[in-house]
Amino acid sequence: MKKLLILVCGLLAGGFSSAFAQVSEGEKAMENSKILIAYYSYSGNTKEVAEAIQSYIGGDLFEIKTEGEYPADYHEMTIQARKEIKDGYRPKLVSKIDNISQYDVVFLGSPNWWGTITPQISSFLESYNLSGKKVIPFITHGGGGVQNTISDMTKQCKDCNIFQDGWNGYGNRTSGIKEWLDGLAL
Fold this sequence. Notes:
Layout: H1 2-31, E1 35-39, H2 45-57, E2 60-63, H3 74-87, E3 105-111, H4 119-127, E4 134-141, H5 149-156, E5 161-162, E6 167-170, H6 177-183
Parallel strand pairs: 1-2, 1-3, 3-4, 4-5, 4-6
């Protein structure tokens, strides 16, 4: 009986170490890539998602900030945002990344505004050379889903590799992020 118990414990320990080895290999793959998590957030929803991504995979968090402000009233903000998008407005960035070339993977977060990415994300894409990098979108929305956000990001990001199966979620809900990240081959 004692030998059987030792055998069972040994098998269980071997199974557990095998499971831990798989996790370690996945974590090692993440560690071999230098990761940036860049985002624009008007209300804090996209920021919360960016922080959830960082807490799970690590990487450097970068908030995209630009000149100008939006009205506090949500309806007024949507009117201004719609006009900016229609006019192709690109606000001047006030937050900067010193050395974008150090990153292999860039998670890029945007709210869905009027079916597309925000002008702040467009300014970021115009300001930085992301060619050759894996760019992974994450989109927050108030019910509109992805719409044209990822396809517009793809059009604006010259010579970069946009992951077409980006994450999207309603508001600041982060459910499903862990599983989505686990499915990425980084």
